[in-house]
Design goal:
Elements: E1 3-5, E2 17-19, E3 34-36, E4 61-63, E5 76-82, E6 91-96, E7 101-105, E8 115-116, E9 129-131, E10 140-142, E11 144-145, E12 152-154, E13 162-168, E14 171-175, E15 181-185, E16 189-192, H1 208-213, E17 268-270
Antiparallel strand pairs: 1-2, 3-4, 5-6, 5-8, 6-7, 9-16, 10-13, 10-16, 11-12, 13-14, 14-15, 15-17
């Protein structure tokens, strides 16, 4: 996966760095796995704006991704590697031996024509989905379930991965991308490998217009607002906004918002690094 730089023929091209898309093998998606994607513009069911700086953007369709990998012990062949506008990673179209088609999040190194499988007794190879009880120690994994059969919830974005450290009783100890170490039931599934498009974090938009294509509108900084609009607003000239706060007055940057009695606290061995 290479990056593409541009000659500075215009000011927006000068710093632009985007993916070369050389890993993409198909330009049109599988129609049977598409769903309509309705835009909210940051508004709730009553039409009230609840999220600012959202709206516009290119029309998109949602690709239905198989995060459960519940089609067990049936081999599937990778037909295409595709771009997905709804996520940072690439997706792979699988053709199962029984004729069914499904999309999965493509791991790094997955090639067209390769066979993948999920379930018990499957080899721990790239793209295969296994139970945590069967994955060797030290293996790099992604698409990790939090509850058995729930579907993958963790390590799904481009370039992210976790590592299986050990097993203790009915739990497996996982080191997450954030640095957090936590326990997950061994009956949960995970996929072998690192999520594709690892150089996504090196991309540079180059211009504000590209953000608008993604549906992101301009965001006004809190310190330039009036006191009626934000706790950090007001003041003469370029005065700073005092202690960093949210619009509702909650302190930001270091203030812990996690509920101290949260049920999942007992599964966390080591918190993420600050």
């Amino acid at each position: 996966m290479a990056l593409k730089k541009f000659k500075p023929t215009t000011s927006s091209q000068r710093f632009k760095v985007v993916s070369a898309l050389d890993d993409i093998t198909a330009t049109s998606p599988e129609k049977s796995l598409l769903q309509p994607k309705k835009r909210t513009g940051g508004r709730n069911s009553e039409g009230k704006m609840t999220i600012r700086s959202v709206g516009g953007g290119h029309k998109q369709k949602y690709r239905v991704i198989d995060f459960k990998r519940d089609k067990e012990n049936i081999p599937a062949t990778v037909k295409t590697i595709e771009y997905d506008p709804n996520r940072t990673a690439r997706i792979a179209l699988l053709f199962y031996a029984d004729g069914e088609k499904r999309y999965i999040v493509a791991p790094n190194g997955l090639k067209v024509g390769q066979e993948v499988e999920s379930g018990k007794g499957v080899q721990p190879e790239i793209g295969n989905s296994l139970y945590l009880s069967e994955i060797p120690f030290g293996t790099v994994i992604h698409n990790i379930e939090l509850r058995p059969g729930q579907g993958a919830k963790m390590a799904r974005s481009a370039g992210s991965h976790a590592q299986l450290m050990s097993r203790d009783g009915k739990f497996a100890v996982i080191k997450l991308p954030s640095g957090e170490t936590r326990m997950i039931l061994q009956t949960c599934k995970a996929t072998i490998g690192i999520v594709s498009n690892t150089e996504h974090n090196l991309e540079v938009s180059g211009k504000a217009g590209r953000s608008r294509w993604f549906g992101r509108r301009p965001r006004t900084r809190a310190v330039v607002m009036n006191p009626v609009d934000h706790p950090m607003g007001g003041g003469e000239g370029r005065s700073s906004g005092g202690h960093p706060r949210s619009r509702k007055g909650l302190p930001a940057k270091g203030y812990k918002t996690r509920y101290p009695k949260k049920a999942s606290n007992k599964y966390i061995i080591e918190r993420r690094k600050k």
